[in-house]
Amino acid sequence: MTAHIGVIRVLTSDDALTVAAHGRVIEERYGIPAVSRCIPGQPHGIHDDESERHAEPKIVELARELAADGAAALVISCAADPALERTREAVDVPVIGAGSAAAAVALGLGSRVGVLGIRDQAPPAVRAVLGERFAGEARPRGVHRTTDLQSPEGPAAVLEAAAGLVEAGADTLLLACTGLNTIGIRPLLEDRLGVPVVDPVLAAGLMASYGRG
Q1: Which superkingdom does the taxonomy of this entry point to (predicted)?
Q2: pTM for the full predicted model
């Protein structure tokens, strides 16, 4: 049996299709089986320091469960890379954070990386990897939580914010919220703006495909 990847969703949902969405993207892109589970009690995911603190111990516990159930590598499907180091210490399989994975891919594509997320500042994990190639950050108007992206106004607000980054000189865009994968915005941004757009879920899946051996 092919070794599978465990995907940790930080957005709580009772809908199996919603929980499995990011794992399904990884399966379709890389042909690797994925098992997805979500942490409890966070219906709006991680969107500020407090929600991140609440999520961290839950992420570590879920990682232990997924590793015990046979996952050969784990993906924390959040661009903030919450509890990444703690999780790596807790399990004996590779653990990939979606944010740092996306930043690493972005470095291979451009020299001025604009970061589009749901907070006013880019995640520290992303900034740390990008270093001097960080070209700016933007949050879509009216978006403060990952669930806001799914509003009728969400895609237009994302496009507007992304266009501003490109106009300011970004030659590559990094999506610093895995909820941007959920709404499938990447192809539209690349088509309209003409620059590479790095999806954190796809980037994490790429890294996990190496990490699982």
Answers
A1: Bacteria
A2: 0.94
